[in-house]
Amino acid sequence: MEERKKEYTILLLGETGVGKSTWINGIRNYVEYETFQQALSEGPECLMPARFTDTSDAGVRTEVRLGEQDDNECLEPGMSGTKSPRTYVLEQEDYNINLIDTPGIGHTGLEDTINLDAILSHLSGFKEIHAICIFLWPDKSRLTTWFEDGIKELLHHLHKDAVQNLKFCFSKARTTDYGPGKTLNLLKGLLNELKIDLLETENSFERNTFYFDNEALKGLSLKKSGIEVTEEKEKLYEESWDQSVQETFRLFGEIRELKGHSTERTISLNRARKSIVKISKPLAEITEKIDLTIKRLNGLRKEADDLDLETKELSSDLYLTVPYVKKKEIERPKTVCTHKECVTKKPNERGKTKVCYEQVCCNPCYLDYIGVSPEATNDWRLRFCWNMYTLSGNCSRCHHSYKDHMHITYDYETFEKTIPNEENRELLQQKKSLFQKNIDTLEKQGALLDELKHERDYINMAIVNFGNFLENNSILPYNDSYVEHIKLLIRNEELKGEGNHGEIKRLQKLKQEYEQKRHEIKEVPVNTEHNTNADGMTAEKIFEIEANLYKLKHYGGLIKSFLEHEKHEPQQESIVKRFIGKVLSNTTSRQSVLQISI
User: Fold this and answer.
1) CA–centroid distance for 405 within its chain
2) pLDDT confidence of residue 248
3) What span, in angstroms and rounded, lies between the C-alpha atoms of 517 and 418?
4) How far is Cα 70 from Cα 49, in angstroms, rounded to an integer?
5) Which of 64, 167, 342, 423 has a CA between 20 and 30 Å from the CA of residue 439?
6) How far apart are CA 211 and CA 280, in angstroms?
7) What is the DSSP string of 428-468?
C-alpha cells in the first residue's frame, strides 16, 4: 500500500479584492516557469479566471481577462471574486501543499457569517492547518471597518492554538518597496490590543510577514492579449515576479517548519460558539421564567401562611357583644326633648330600633296635675314648666321649643347580649377555602419547586462554563452575551419607570450572582464533580453539557428547540484543482515537469 504523502495546508483569508486568488494564479506560474522571461514567452497559466485593467501612457484603459469561465469566480467590480472555498493542491514528490482560497470577508454583499460557516465546513476535510494567511493592503494609514472589525471577526473564530500559525501577507507590495508600509503601525496596534505577540522581535517579524505583488501576472496577461508593454514596465513586472517567487517559496519553507494547528479544535470551538451564541439569550429568559415561577410559588406559600394567621384570628372573633335597651316604668313622669338633636336610636331585645330620649329637661315633672298627657308633644301646658317658662318658650336646658317636649313615664335600661358574628363567619369560610386551595397547590407543586431550582442551577452552571470555554479557547476574549442580555433587560425595566424597582433589583442580583459564580468556577479544581474548571473545559464537555440541557424535565425541550443545530442542505462536494511543480529552496535549483489535472 502506497504511503500517504505529507500535506501542508495554507488557509487564505482577507477582504474582497486583496489578491488571494490572484496570488494562487501566480503560484501556478511560479512553479511552472524558471523565469519571468520564460513565462512571458510560454505562459501564462491560470487555475481560475482573472481580470486586469491597464491604462496606457496615452490614458487608454484596457481590460484583460484570462482563464476559462468558472461559476465559483465573479469578476464583476465590487463583488466578492471567490464565491465559496476551493482547494488548489500543489503536488510535490514527497509532500503536497493545499492552498485554500476563500470568499472575501467584509464588504462582500454576502453575510460574513455564511462565508465563515462555509470556510469552517470546508476545513473539516483537513486534519491540520499549517498557515493561516491574512492578506492585507500595505498602504492603509487609517483604521477601516475591515481592518478593525474584519480581522477581529476572523480571529474570533480561531482557536487560541492557531496564533502560532498566523501569517500576515501584504499584497501589491511593490507600491511600498516590498514592505508593510503604513499598515504596519495599524497591525501592531491591533495585535497589541489583542495581546498577540507575533511581530515584536526581528526574528518573529521576519517569520510572520510576507510581501507579494501580482503585477507580474498582469504583465503576462497583457502580453498574451497582444498589448505592447514598455521596457520600463517589463522590468517592473520582472522585479515583481522575482520578489513574489522568493517570498512565496520562503512561505512554503516556513510552513514546513511549523507544527500544524488541529482543525478539529477550531471547528469544535465554532460549533460550541454557535451553540453558546444561540442559547445565551433563551437561557437568560428561561432562567427568568423559572425565577418568576419560583417567586409565584413562594408567594403562594407566604399567602398561605398569612391566611393561616388570619383564620386563627377570625376563629377567635366569631361572636359579637351587642347592647340593647329595655323600658322600665318610673313613679313620676319626666319631661324630655324630642328634637332630633336630643334623641338617639338603640336596638331593643328583639333587635328593633327604638328612639331613646337622652335629653331630660325636667325630672320629676308635676305638670301632669294640670292635665299634661304622656308622650304627646306640642302641649301648651308645658309652657308652665320652670325650664320653659321663658319669653321665647324655648327650654333653658336644650334651647329647643316647648313644642318639641313631652312627658314620658319610663326609663331605658341598657343590657348586653352575645350574637353570632355572621360577617366574620362568612369571611372565615372564604379564608379557609383559599388557604386549603393554596395548600393543595403547594403540595402538588412542592416537587416542582425543587425541580425548577435544580434546572435553574444547572442552566446557570452551563452558561458559566460556556463563557469560560470560549474565553479560554478563543484568540479573542468571549463577548459574554448572557450578561449583555441581562443588562438589556435591566435597561428595558428602567425605561418603564420607578414602579419596576423590584424587578430591576432582581435582575441586578441575577447578574451579580452569575458574575460571582463565574469567578468562583475559575478557582474550582479540575477533578470536581461537575468538572467546571475553566482550563479543563473542552469542546467535548461543552457538548456533553449541551446534551444534558436537552434532558431537563421541564425546560429541556424548549432549550433543544433553541439550541439544536439547523439542518443544512448537503454541501456540494468541494472542487479540488491539482497542479505539479518544483518548489525552490535556498539550496536547490528548480526543475519542473508540469501537468494539470482537475
Assistant:
1) 87
2) 95
3) 63
4) 7
5) 423
6) 42
7) HHHHHHHHHHHHHHHHHHHHHHHHHHHHHHHHHHHHHHHHH
